[in-house]
Amino acid sequence: MNFLTPLICAVGVTFLIYGGLCLSSLSMVEDFQRFGLERLRMLTGLLEVLGGSALLVGLKWRPALSISSGGLSLLMLIAFGVRLKMRDSIGQSLPSLTLMFLTAYILVKSFQK
User: Fold this and answer.
1) Nearest CA to 69 among 19, 18, 105, 103?
2) CA 51, CA 64: separation in Å to the nearest integer?
3) How many CB atoms lie within 10 A of CB 43?
4) Which one of 1, 6, 38, 56 is CB 3.0 to 4.6 Å from 12, fit for a cystine?
């Protein structure tokens, strides 16, 4: 087993969890209200769940890996930008930045195999 497979699994599951929380957690509702983006919360959660699922599917079907990692990279870039605009702390901003770099790494690797 190479390093990429467990990374894809971990990131995929992370997005499934974050997406589920985005759809159901009161603290996420409050965060999206604070951002002024409450109308995008359900879409964001759905995109995270679909993207996380597609990462896992991508272990067997490479196009899903490339598409999902690219889309999730973009989603996390936007999330990081929102955090910067809101002047959130490094601790609050670090998850989106980390996930952006990890999904970008997966995207690059998806084209190398």
Assistant:
1) 103
2) 9
3) 11
4) 56
Give the model confidence (pLDDT) of 32-58 as tens digits: 999 999 999 999 999 999 999 999 999
Taking only the tens place, the pLDDT of each residue in 77-109 is 999 999 999 999 999 999 999 999 999 999 999
* 100 touches 76 (CB < 8 A): yes
Look up residue 106 and give its two tokens. Answer: 């997966």
- The whole-angstrom separation of Cα 7 and Cα 108 is 13
Has this prediction a pTM greater than 0.90? yes
DSSP 106: H
Cα distance between residue 78 and residue 81, in whole Å: 5
How many Cα atoms sit within 13 Å of 84 on the Cβ side?
Answer: 8
Closest CA to 15 of 95, 110, 107, 105: 95
